[in-house]
Amino acid sequence: MINKAGNCLYIWNIQVHTVQYTFRSTQYNITFFMILSSRASGVLLHISSLPSEFGIGDFGSAAYHFADRLSEAGQKIWQILPLTPTDLSSGNSPYSSSSAFAGNTLFISPELMMKDNLLSAKIIKNRPNFPVEHVDYKAVHEFKQHLFTIAFQNFQKQNKHKEYEQFCSLNSYWLDDYSLFTALKTHFAGKPWFEWSDALRLRNPDVLGIAAANHIEAIEREKFLQFQFHKQWTSLKKYCHAKHIHLLGDIPIYSSHDSADVWSNPHIFQLNSRSLPTSVAGVPPDYFSPKGQRWGNPLYNWTALQKTEFIWWKHRLKRNFELYDAVRIDHFRGLVAYWDIPAHEKTAVNGTWQSVPTLEFLQSLTATFDHFPVIAEDLGTITDDVKEVMEKFTLPGMKVLQFAFDDTPNNPYLPHNYTKNCLVYTGTHDNNTTRGWYKSDASAKSKHYIKKYLSATPKEVTIHEDFMKLALSSVAMISIIPLQDVLGLGPEARMNQPSTSKGNWSWRATKAMMKEKNFRVLRSFTSIYGRL
After folding, report:
1. CA distance 236 to 242
2. Is this structure's pTM higher than 0.85?
3. Looking at the annotation, which residues are catalytic?
4. Of the four listed, 140, 258, 260, 454, which is most buried by Cβ atoms within 10 Å?
5. How far apart are CA 61 and CA 71, in angstroms?
């Protein structure tokens, strides 16, 4: 079904066609491999955590300022969390998104929109008194939607839309479905797609065409916002490259059930005739979680994926390799074997392990892309089959120092056990800050072992520096330090606490934290340990 609306041509396909292509890497996809062969370091900070006058970090001046700080400190990598859309109903988690392809429009900078004559200075100055040290997502969402409506109206009055039309055309493979999905979600007051009418739920082509015609304005508005996201992110990425900083992104392994991905590709997920999952994702019980973790995402139908030559995953990686110079795949072990939980089960206890056609999958992907800058998140209990796959495809894994000190010299997270082909972190977005961990989470045994390992008595106020030294001095090819640990912040700066639904993903750095003097210790250690 084809509809002409505004400046873009919309085409909705209900079949997934196998497309043969070879994705040519950019210079920076390729040079990330050069980084992997040398010693380098970087900082983990999500866009939402940047300072901003608009309630949430964005692609405006503070992002460029942070890139300057990284460059001055000799850092080569800026790692961020997924840039995909977030939602109030899912706790604003970047790992629970309505799309694996779209950008989070909350990161669009009103400041940059003003420079493009889409907003006036008067309009952006008339803003709420947002909190400085955390994100009030509800307030930010309401304010930015107001600005976006005005910006879209001004954009429609402009005549120079060639770049926009090109963007719509090049990204139609995900943008058409996503923009229609968001328009229908708004129309149905947020109701999930699997509760829509059967004709829309099952994607009847005639009904989709009618729906598109009825929601032209909302569809155009979403495409405009995705274009703004693209323009601003591309500009920031170009600036980072000029500073010799590479961008490391993150890919959640699974899609949310209520997403454009599952709605537009139901055949590659394990769904029943009512579009509900028959089995869901999670992890089995362990020492830390007696009932395991039931995440609830629909599982992939790997037989269907095989028949399409894994085209959806190829499209997904194509998109991510355009956004970032390299990506980390979260819960990589799920691409080797996954914990299959019957959908009716309330916990993860009664799941079973199911295998994935991993070799065929990865061989197909690596044959498609001339470079494959992928890092495997291999934390937790990792079996030999996962290790063999990572070794076969030379995929770097991860080490986290907060997991290292259990009084066992064979602990794989202790620096003396590292191999070169890995990334080491003091902690991740799911961990407490290092100071917060040492104060409240580390056991007496762990603290005693840290003392023996350092041959010194650590102090809470400087434990983050001790861990930075361990990470940066290790043989690991890349060391990543969360900004909270660079600054020596406490538990108030924690980004996420797994298995909790409130207060996560909201921490923000202040302008004062971005002063050059706060990065001098990082630069010194980076120089001492040969990572400049």
Report:
1. 10
2. yes
3. 330, 377, 430
4. 260
5. 15
Q: Are 59 and 400 in contact (CB under 8 A)?
A: no
Q: How many CB atoms lie within 10 A of CB 18?
A: 10
For residues 89 and 81, give the distance between their C-alpha atoms in angstroms, rounded to a whole number: 19
Asked whether the beta carbons of 358 and 378 are under 8 A apart, the reply is no
Euclidean distance between the first and final Cα of the chain, in Å?
Answer: 54
Between CA 190 and CA 260, with CA 12 as vertex, the angle to 5 degrees is 35
Q: Is 53 exposed, middle or buried (0-12, 13-18, 19+ CB in 10 A)?
A: middle
User: Does residue 448 register a pLDDT over 70?
Assistant: yes
How confident is the model at residue 30, as a pLDDT?
Answer: 66
Residue 3: pLDDT above 70? no
* 2-395 classified as CATH 3.30.70.100: no
pLDDT of residue 20: 46
- pLDDT digit string (tens) for 296-307? 999 999 999 999
CA–CA dist 216, 201 (Å, integer): 19
* Sign of CA pseudo-dihedral 23, 29, 31, 37: negative
Instruction: Single out the residue of 526, 494, 426, 507 nearest to residue 47, CA to CA.
Output: 507
pLDDT class of 23 with cuts at 50, 70, 90: low
288-310: b or e for each residue (b if 16 or more CB lie within 10 Å)? eeeebbbbebbbbbbebbeebbb
Contact yes or no for 104/226 (Cβ under 8 A): no
pLDDT in tens, 505-517: 999 999 999 999 9
At what angle are helices 216-242 and 162-170 packed, to 10 degrees? 90
Taking the C-alpha atoms of residue 509 and residue 49, their distance in angstroms, rounded to an integer, is 6
CA separation for the pair 506, 93 (Å, rounded): 10
Residue pair 103/85 in contact by the 8 Å Cβ criterion: yes
- pLDDT above 60 for 180: yes
Please give the C-alpha separations between residue 131 and each of 12, 45, 57, 85, 280, in angstroms, as whole numbers: 42, 19, 12, 21, 37
- Give the span between the Cα atoms of 322 and 373, in whole angstroms: 12
CA-to-CA distance for 386 and 9, rounded, in angstroms? 44
Task: Please report the DSSP string for 310-322 in residue order.
Answer: THHHHHHHHHHHH
Question: DSSP letters along 73-132, please?
Answer: TT--EEE----S---GGGTT-TTS-S-SSS--GGGS-HHHHHHTTSS-HHHHHS-----S
- Evaluate whether 233 touches 26 at the Cβ level (below 8 Å): no
DSSP 453: H
Q: State both tokens at 398.
A: 């991860």
| 152 touches 219 (CB < 8 A) | no
What is the 3-state secondary structure of 169-195?
HHCHHHHHHHHHHHHHHHHCCCCCHHH
**C-alpha to C-alpha distance for 275 and 516, rounded to whole angstroms:** 53
DSSP-assigned states of every residue in 219-283 = HHHHHHHHHHHHHHHHHHHHHHHHTT-EEEEEE-SS--SSSHHHHH-GGGB-B-TTS-BSEEEEE
- Nearest Cα residue to 332 out of 298, 369, 361, 370: 361
